[in-house]
Structure prediction request, 305 residues.
Amino acid sequence: MEIDLDKLATEERNPATMDIDRVSTLEMVKMINNEDKKVVAAVEKELESIAAAVDVIAVRLEDGGRLIYIGAGTSGRLGVLDASECPPTFGVDPTMVQGIIAGGDMAIRTSVEGAEDDMEEAIHQLKEIGLNHMDVLVGIAASGRTPYVVGALQYGRKVGAATISVSCSPDSEIAKAAEVSITPVVGPEAITGSTRMKAGTAQKMVLNMLSTGAMVRLGKVYENYMIDVQALNEKLVERCKKIVMEVTGVSKDVASATLEDTDYDVKLAIFLIKTGLDIEIGQKILNEHKGRLGSALEGSTELVL
Prediction:
């Protein structure tokens, strides 16, 4: 099927950058920066839809579902990136948030020609992971018309998954295929059609809010600390200690000792220090509050102020 690029907002020519190949390097990067400034405003207009999507995701995840991103090219890579950051940041199982890209894992590093047009491949990949009615499927496509993503969302609705679209073109095909549509319209790119630029930035901002917002709702954050962070390297070990020290006011020695006792479970360490409870009882109370530290502290009659 022939594609009319003139009807896609992401393919329009930008009048502000027509001489980008003839200006100084400083002027060139100023042009790009001026275009980037438009992204925040475009995303801001979609906050109500983003909030609605966050609430849907949080409910499904708490009920045992998964968050699945799917896209092609840059859009697919952004989904894979966001998904891969969730386990170390929020301590979730790697299967809870997943990124699927047209062309498979090879397409993360190299372009796979024609993959974005293969609707059946999207369905095959979703069947492989067992997409079902408990899950949330987020289809990502800057143009909003990528057949691979359209097919994925249509299949998602068929099996009862909650469906969300993220695109940068108004009235897009993926918006029509999804229950919740998020459409930050960023305007023409500095380089015509290069949607890895403003569109990619907008999509990254949206995905940040979707995953982070859902994790906040699930109790993975206390105040603004990532209390389920995993101590996977030296920097993260030190971050764990710093969080415990700042939240509880204890010394580094006490924070380190408590983290050692709890196998570097930051949330549990904070709860034990604040309440004076032992590990077994502390973990039981946290479990009763579904891992929400604030709720557990408020509900604990043995809280030490």
User: Anything to note?
Assistant: The first strand starts at residue 67 and ends at 71.
